[in-house]
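Model: You mentioned two targets. I'll fold them one after the other.
Researcher: Yes, keep them separate.
Model: Target one:
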Amino acid sequence: MTHHRHHRPLDGKIALVTGGSRGIGRAIAERLGRDGAVVAVAYARDAAAADDVVARIREDGGRAVALHAPLGHHGDAAGLWSAFDERITQHAPGTEARPAVDIIVNNAGIAMPAALPALTEEDFDKVFAVNVRAPFFVVREGLKRLRDGGRIINISSGAGRLAMPEAIAYGATKGALDNFTLNLAKELGPRGITANAVAPGIVDTDVNAEWLRGNPAAEADAASRAALGRVGQPDDVADIVAFLASHDARWVTGKVIDATGGARL
């Protein structure tokens, strides 16, 4: 039983976080769990990592479940929601015929560090399939379950607004995601559902570890790009997502929130 003094901002809410086993997605899942949401941690490959996130959320007194749901192929979004329906009822039994969701975080994404001359059509299709098509259809399938007053939060990138020719297709996927966010906000506003994007800069995650960690020159360069003078941490992004997921952000919609620490101001 929750006493009022322990009320958490997301008590009674159900959240789905894609790419929730590592990096920014993991930080988001753990934070939403601490804030009281039941969290479905969707992951593509690493079952052990996803189970670890679920264990951490439970240790903190939260509720969570891992969903194995790779994204990037036709039918994947429907598969993800089938897994959600099946697993979430065990952890958040409700009266609904179909399990409901309150917060959808489209965080799953892949990098594509290729300039135009090196970019192949296969690379292009792959990065758009995961970074754009998957969020489109995760939301399309999720709308049947998304409660009025819900939240859609898309994890974009500073590359959506800053020229980075060395990752030209990746940047294009984030521009598309930002536009999708705008249209969702307009379309779903009458239901009290907000749609926003969060655009991180360089964050110290596994994805960036190879070139960033233990490389003082790279770290100094990355830190120098932010007005705040350091490399971003996953929690820096997760805390913004937590705000957008909460009641406090009810009057913010259709926005891309810059989470780069002030890159290239």
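Model: Target two:
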Amino acid sequence: MTDAPSQIEHDDLIDIDFLLTPEEIALRGRVRSFVDTVVRPNIADWYDRAVFPVEIVPEMARLGLLGMHLKGYGCPGQSAVDYGLAALELEAGDSGLRTFVSVQGSLAMSAIYKHGSEDQKNEWLRGMAAGTTIGCFGLTEPDSGSDPASMKTFARRDGDDWVLTGHKRWIGLGTIAHVAIVWAQTDEGVRGFIVPTNTPGFEAKLIEQKLSMRASIQTELILTDVRLPATALLPNVEGLRGPFECLNEARYGIVWGVMGAARDSYESALEYSKTRLPFDRPLASFQLTQQKLVDMAVEIQKGTLLALHLGRLKDAGRLQPHQISVGKLSNTREAIAIAREARTILGGNGITLDYSPLRHANNLESVRTYEGTDEVHTLVIGHHITGIPAFR
């Protein structure tokens, strides 16, 4: 652990940096510098035009952000805490950036890494870690979000091949992906398939006119008699355990990431309150404003401590699914409240893209929904507490 207070975290009220190593602080600084120099000057324009900046993917790869927590096969092999710190800094820029890293690494790459054959890992993971191959993860369907067991996408055997037919929706990166991990019902239960997106019968359509996650890519996948060889099947998992293990990787990143959006919202409001001069005095000098700022700062500290604790548990091999649900539920809920409260300090100016809080708040509405809604995570925790499943 580091003994000296960090110079980078001037709002670290309770010295959380004392719990980080110098190497972790240095990694965080590198990602923060990337966000400050590449993302912040451009994010308002990207968001306004609903553009995901694919040109920054090579730099993300050079920073070791793709498949960051995976080891071997050209992957960076960083710790869970390293990945969390990077997720926090990325989402301080925009949720869409952290989502890209999450879809690529925690979902698509993790599916191959956890459940694929050695041949599949060797074929795909190096290019994905380098950012030259983009992946997506096809689980959610138009009528099947929180209940993936009801998915209608089906893969049938035809000789040695599989023929895949179905419809997926809210699939990140589908229109720029080179490979899709698609989960489908089969006569043997739910299985995962590696689907090159240039396979005949595969179509990706962009979901447009979004009010949230505008600097990100969400799509529909339409699969019409997509013929795949036997080698496309992920051989090492059957049933919903396969996608759920990947979703837990993504949910873990969210626990950290949303605190980045919250912190950026708070810092935007704090700086504004020092320079805005209603009634000939700084807005920050009013008691009600200070109460808002203090409440935001305290919740950010608590949420970051929770994320760090879960990261240490993950690195120790002790992290349980219900603990991830605690983090995702609590931190996302608090991050939205912080972003909304920060917007109130900005007044009417806060509805413009000159300031980040309302953009973060809009994005967080999506983050609150994907990888498990509040209701789903509440019931996961409720099941753990009571021993009684209440999903049905």
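Researcher: Noted. Anything on target two?
Model: The two ends are 46 Å apart (CA to CA).
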